[in-house]
Design brief:
Shape: globular
CATH topology of the largest domain: Pnp Oxidase, Chain A
CATH class of the largest domain: Mainly Beta
Radius of gyration: 24 Å
Strand content: 25-35%
Helix content: 25-40%
Oligomer: single chain
Number of helices: 10
Structural class: alpha+beta
CATH superfamily of the largest domain: Electron Transport, Fmn-binding Protein, Chain A
Bound molecules: flavin mononucleotide
Distance between the termini: 46 Å
Largest sheet: 9 strands, antiparallel
Number of domains: 2
Length: 444
């Protein structure tokens, strides 16, 4: 991540803040202001109570994120889907074992930036924490983001979410009464960041995806306590174990959808070692901001694209704009009812997300929700082109029923009557330069 921060600085994108900033609310407030003012990456060099610098908004820009995948002109979803295929088929080792970095320093959680983001948050949170764990039966590594609440130097509380691989690992360890060894990685190279945010089928090593994105194996060292494979470039690594049969209060916390998730009884991580590289940069992530959403949207779109392209003809592109809960699919309709079949695949593709699915044709910008809704409203009957699936469970919060149900909007033209819905055009428009027509001295 440090190399990524340096790259953003060299590019002139990085904004640096030298003034002392309070980790309680002020850091989040400055981050929010900077996001409103242009969404550029930020580096805080002086955060009260810690010697570590704090970087944020590093992956908020879609073009920056796209550059981690490849430099082709292909739609992002298709390009990322191709890398997912390659990762699943990979036979070459995805990691290279190296010595622990010579500049590793050991300390306590209290040395790290303890950042409180929102008014009603129960305390400081690590929001860019990637949890690394190995399958208790097969040893296959998995990485996933899980916010972690700071309770004290010896304890963090984690919210795992039922459908995640980590929750499955933990359940199996718990069944035999064992704690699950984990490492929290904070500040990892971009390919590892993307791999951690991506769901891969059970049994697939997420380092395979990181290695495909990096185009080389990832250097890892064995964690001093857990022996788990930690990427050598990781800025901060917190080792510990998730206790079996132990749940304690976690939350409230202002999370990704913009609301507070109420307090719940969640998992307990006992801390065993805290290490960081000399001059470490800590990664902070404002939940629900573009940095939080851009990757989720992109990986969800890639996943849906892959499922669709395997099962149906005429799939052009998929986007999850404006946030990860809506999926818009662009198709070249092949038969009446094509859009409905698309919706079925989309709603099956990710049990948590995809609350709303819109289907459009090539002439609609699938990143522009105004254009999508305009197409829905103007291209046919809204009653027969709306699909409602009742009761189907979706994105989990602590109060589960808030996210049940699905809605599909078919915004394609009636099949066989497309000509009645050709978008009007004025011939010669592209060639007109207004200044050639206006009286001299007129102002536009
Ligand atoms: C930047 C980012 C932050 C995230 N934060 C959280 C989080 O705090 N809690 C959570 O349960 N999921 C969070 N997620 C979602 C999942 O953890 C993530 O998509 C992960 O890939 C799931 O991995 P798995 O399918 O291997 O379990 C986040 C995803 C991203 C991309």
């Amino acid at each position: 991540m440090r190399a990524w921060v340096e790259y953003l600085a060299l590019n002139g994108q990085l904004l640096t803040i030298e003034r002392e900033v309070d980790p309680r609310y002020e850091l989040a407030a400055v981050t929010r202001r900077a996001q409103e003012a242009g969404n550029r990456p930020l580096l805080f060099r002086n955060v009260r109570g810690t010697r570590l610098h704090v970087a944020t908004n590093l992956f908020a820009d879609a073009d920056n994120l796209r550059s981690v995948v490849d430099d082709s002109d292909e739609p992002f979803a298709a390009a990322y889907a191709r890398v997912l295929d390659a990762a699943e088929a990979r036979v070459a080792p995805p990691t290279t074992e190296v010595q622990a970095p010579g500049d590793l320093q050991q300390g306590s959680l209290t040395d790290l930036p303890l950042i409180t983001y929102h008014e009603r948050d129960a305390g400081p949170y690590f929001t860019a924490a990637i949890v690394l764990a190995c399958d208790p039966d097969t040893g296959v590594p998995n990485m996933s983001f899980h916010r972690a609440m700071y309770v004290g130097p010896g304890e963090l509380r984690l919210r795992l979410g039922d459908s995640h691989d980590l929750a499955d690992y933990q359940r199996r360890a718990e069944k035999i009464g064992q704690a699950l060894p984990v490492v929290l990685l904070i500040g990892v190279p971009p390919p590892v960041f993307c791999a951690a945010g991506t769901h891969l089928p059970a049994g697939i090593d997420e380092y395979a995806l990181a290695a495909e994105l990096a185009r080389e194996p990832i250097d890892v060292y064995s964690g001093p306590v857990t022996r788990l494979p930690i990427p050598a470039a990781t800025e901060v690594a917190i080792e510990g174990r998730i206790l079996p049969n132990e749940r304690r209060p976690e939350g409230p916390f202002g999370e990704v959808l913009g609301y507070y998730v109420p307090e719940g009884r969640n998992h307990v991580m006992e801390i065993e070692a805290v290490g960081w590289r000399r001059g470490a940069v800590f990664h902070s992530l404002l939940c629900g901001s573009r940095e939080d959403l851009a990757l989720l949207e992109a990986v969800n779109a890639a996943r849906v694209y892959r499922d669709l392209a395997r099962r149906l003809p005429g799939i052009i592109d998929v986007s999850c704009a404006p946030a990860f809960m809506n999926t818009t699919v662009q198709i070249r309709p092949q038969y009446a009812g094509h859009a409905r079949d698309v919706m079925d695949v989309v709603f099956d593709s990710h049990a948590d997300y995809n609350q709303l699915c819109c289907v459009v044709e090539e002439d609609v910008d699938l990143h522009d929700m105004n254009a999508v809704i305009h197409a829905f409203i103007t291209r046919g009957r809204v009653d027969t082109r709306t699909r409602i699936m009742e009761g189907r469970k979706g994105f989990y919060r602590d109060t589960q029923d808030d996210f049940a149900g699905r809605v599909g909007l078919d915004a394609t033209r009636p099949f066989g009557r497309e000509d009645e819905f050709v978008v009007k055009e004025v011939p010669g428009l592209d060639a007109v330069r207004l200044e050639d027509y206006l009286t001299r001295g007129s102002r536009i």
